[in-house]
């Protein structure tokens, strides 16, 4: 689990192609990796990656065809900048919102408006995700926890503050750029609960005391 508060911006040093899947070598820049071990999780542009190998300046992770298909990683190249965040601890301040690192879809930046210190960004998201998006709600874009300032259909507007610009890849955002989108986890589960068909839960379960005794639940 993650918070969407980016710890540093790293980059892809190498891409190793293994038939259909790939391995990527990531330079973690200023990120403290002294406590990392094999199997740990790191959010890289919003995608939860597993550390398969440690290097003096970063780590190696494997990406399956499923990950490449569902995320913007399919278009990444050597030198690509990445927002990096280590998995949260029980003592971590939840400064952003709860992020799983499981990307829900790919968004497209369709408009940018740079102001004196902030940047307004408009992003289209897959149509099936629009029900999870609301004004003043949270969304994760390339691993960054952001607040939605406006919504129209499946287009959302974000206002990026100076601190976020200085500490994430959003400072270099461009029109037509693809970004990884993860909707708010609370919204996802709430929608699932509301939409469940009541027929999935029959009124009678045919559970009796004798049945429980037979299977050892009651002594």
UniProtKB/TrEMBL annotation:
EC number per UniProt: 2.5.1.9
GO terms, molecular function: riboflavin synthase activity
Lumazine-binding repeats: 1-97, 98-194
Catalytic reaction list: 2 6,7-dimethyl-8-(1-D-ribityl)lumazine + H(+) = 5-amino-6-(D-ribitylamino)uracil + riboflavin
EC class name: transferase
Record GO biological process: riboflavin biosynthetic process
Domain Lumazine-binding, residue spans: 1-97, 98-194
Pathway note: Cofactor biosynthesis; riboflavin biosynthesis; riboflavin from 2-hydroxy-3-oxobutyl phosphate and 5-amino-6-(D-ribitylamino)uracil: step 2/2
Family matches, as InterPro entries: ATP_synth_asu-like_sf, Lumazine-bd, Lumazine-bd_dom, Riboflavin_synthase-like_b-brl
The keyword Transferase is annotated on this UniProt entry: yes
Pfam families registered for this protein in UniProt: Lum_binding
Subunit composition and interactions: Homotrimer.
Summary of the function given for this chain in its UniProt record: Catalyzes the dismutation of two molecules of 6,7-dimethyl-8-ribityllumazine, resulting in the formation of riboflavin and 5-amino-6-(D-ribitylamino)uracil.
Protein name listed in UniProt: Riboflavin synthase
Organism: Photobacterium leiognathi subsp. mandapamensis (Photobacterium mandapamensis)
């Amino acid at each position: 689990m993650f918070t969407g508060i980016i710890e540093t911006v790293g980059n892809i040093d190498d891409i190793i192609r293994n038939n259909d899947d790939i391995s990527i070598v990531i330079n973690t820049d200023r990120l403290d990796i002294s406590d990392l071990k094999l199997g740990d999780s790191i959010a890289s542009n919003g995608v939860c990656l597993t550390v398969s190998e440690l290097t003096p300046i970063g780590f190696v992770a494997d990406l399956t065809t499923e990950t490449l298909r569902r995320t913007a990683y399919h278009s990444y190249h050597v030198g690509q900048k990445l927002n990096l965040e280590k998995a949260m601890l029980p003592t971590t301040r939840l400064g952003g919102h709860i992020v799983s690192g499981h990307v829900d879809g790919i968004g497209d930046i369709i408009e940018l408006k740079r102001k004196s210190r902030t940047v307004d960004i408009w992003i289209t998201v897959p149509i099936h995700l629009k029900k999870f998006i609301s004004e003043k709600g949270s969304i994760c874009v390339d691993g960054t926890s952001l607040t939605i300032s406006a919504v129209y259909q499946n287009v959302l507007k974000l206002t990026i503050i100076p601190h976020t610009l200085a500490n994430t890849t959003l400072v270099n955002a461009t029109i037509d750029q693809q970004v990884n989108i993860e909707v708010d986890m609370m919204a996802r589960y709430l929608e699932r609960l509301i939409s469940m068909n009541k027929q999935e839960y029959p009124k009678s379960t045919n559970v009796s005391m004798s049945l429980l005794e037979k299977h050892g639940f009651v002594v």
